[in-house]
Amino acid sequence: MVNYLSNSETVIKMTDCSVLLPLKTNQTGDFRREVVQSILGGEIFKNRKKRSYVRAINKVSLEIKKGERIGVVGSNGSGKTTFLKTISGVYAPQEGKIDINVDMVSLLNLGFGMQPELSGEENLANLCVQFNLNVKQTINRAQEILDFSQLGEFFYQPVKTYSSGMRMRLLLAVATLSPADMLVMDEWFSTGDASFRLRADKRISKHLDRSGILILASHNIGLLQKWTSKTIWFHRGEIKKIGKTDDITREYLEFSKL
Amino acid sequence: MSSVILDLKKGFKNYNQWFYLSYLSIKRRYAMSIIGPNWTLIANTFFILSVSFLFSGLNQKVFSDYFVFLCFGYLIWTYIIEFVNSGNMIFLNQKIDISNGAPNLTGLVLKFTFMQMLLFAHNLPLIIITLFFVELSLWGCVLAFFAFVIITINMFLFLIWAGTLCARFRDVSLLIATIMRIMFFLTPIIWHPDTAVGTLRNYFVIYNPFHYAISVFRDSLIGSIDPFNWYIVLFMTVINLFIALIFFGLAKKHLVYWVQ
User: Fold this and answer.
1) Facing A108 at nearest CB: one of B101, B107, B253
2) Do the Cβ atoms of B28 and A118 come within 8 Å?
3) In terms of Cα–Cα distance, which of A165, A148, A254 is closest to A206?
4) What is the span of the domain harbouring residue B231?
5) Residue with the larger pLDDT of the pair B249 and A24
6) CA A113 to CA A143: how far, in whole Å?
7) What is the pLDDT of residue A5?
8) How far apart are CA A94 and CA A55, in angstroms?
9) B185-207 pLDDT tens trace
10) Quick one: closest CA in B to A128, which residue?
11) A39 pLDDT band (50/70/90 cuts)?
């Protein structure tokens, strides 16, 4: 259930949220289920109709307030992306409820909003629709996008010729054209090189000038320590710990070494 | 249901953006092709001329009469069939955008609809040339235009409910493809509905929704308008609207899980 909050410091409130993702096969045997479950996060189960589901996040409760810069860590399959998609409103949780009162931009996938056969310039219109921007105004700001993304001649080439870093630069350049209250980014952001990250840092700070909420999922601990003050550690679909980024990332690294 | 209305309102509000995106989709589809979307016109002209030559001879009909009948019927059939065959996968084909927060599902359906309209517009030269073979009336042209609009509305609504149904049950898409393969022959496109009267074949005319959709467009241009066909098409539109709203209302929040 998704509700929208009235004006308050809390912009997102999750109460006992669980997201169940359907699995394509119903043939999951007990042994295979155990193996998958031990490697990945969530519990795999069958419902009354004998359909298989994975509990990607389980009974997650938390509040996100204005001005918070939150990092998300966890091993592969721990529920980070599902969490980001839930707070972005992509997944409506089947159990629990989520209240959202924020104007956000979510960058969850590098292929999002882009048609590979079209050039970066032509894809601007696609990206505008995805980010609720005006197409004409955005096309008029193509030079600004080009300057920030530094794609050069590649801007006029098909996106299928781009590296993942180049795609990310274009995506971020368009997504941050207009200010928003919250920016949600998945771990692919780490694909950018060092010089781009410096430019991105300035641009994102400017972009988040109103209430400045940033949610960043990454395996890059350095990036999290630089950009976030608070970190959520996901483990097997549940929140293992929330706290200061330095403390949580240190504990997470120690845990990962085991 | 309110989220469905909101989605529809948002989609129609930004119709110009979706129209531009449909143009880009056509550009992408025909990337590297010299003739591009004009292949639609070439392929249809070639097919209609060949079949007219063959079947007018076999059925001992006047070539021009049969050509006119086939041309209008076949062109509107190709328009419908593109929606039915390709459109039912509309949400599955957009799964990357949907599973990463596509803001508007109605917009995706509008984009596909505009794309098909633009592709159909490439047939206009053939339609205009064919109009020289009929006794043209302004009323007929106006009715044909309305027929095109109402068929488009029906197809838009079909995309919504068939798209959600096919996202949930993957076999439905294959079932539709199987049915549509034979529907071309069962629908009066290459044969005249009058030839079925008094035979078992007449059931394929009476109980065939495609027959009514094609007839309102074709007969308006040919000049043999039957109000009954219009009543049926309007009735189908109302039914289609209800089904689309119910399906979209029930399935909208689950769609993101189904397209994974």
Assistant:
1) B101
2) yes
3) A148
4) 2-258
5) B249
6) 20
7) 47
8) 10
9) 999 999 988 888 888 888 888 99
10) B17
11) low
CB contact, 8 Å: B18 with chain A?
yes
Using CA atoms, how far apart are residues A6 and A180, in angstroms rounded to an integer?
18
Question: Quick check: helix, strand or coil at residue B100?
Answer: coil
Q: What is the pTM of this model?
A: 0.83
Give the whole-angstrom CA distance, residue B51 versus residue B190. Answer: 8
* Residue A31 pLDDT class (50, 70, 90 cuts): low
Q: Look up residue B183 and give its amino acid.
A: M
Note whether A130 contacts B257, CB cutoff 8 Å: no
Alpha-helical segments (H) within A150-220: 164-175, 194-207
Note whether B101 contacts A: Cβ–Cβ < 8 A.
yes
Q: Predicted ipTM?
A: 0.74
Condensed to tens digits (0 to 9), the pLDDT of residues B167-184 reads 989 899 999 999 999 999
Query: Which backbone phi and psi does A183 adopt, to 5 degrees?
Result: -120, 125
Alpha carbons B132 and B123: distance in angstroms, whole number? 15
pLDDT exceeds 60 at position A7: no
Q: Number of folded domains in chain B?
A: 1
Please state the φ and ψ torsions of residue B83, each to the nearest 5 degrees.
-65, -45
CB B12 within 8 A of CB B110: yes
Inter-residue contact B100 to A108 (CB < 8 Å) = yes
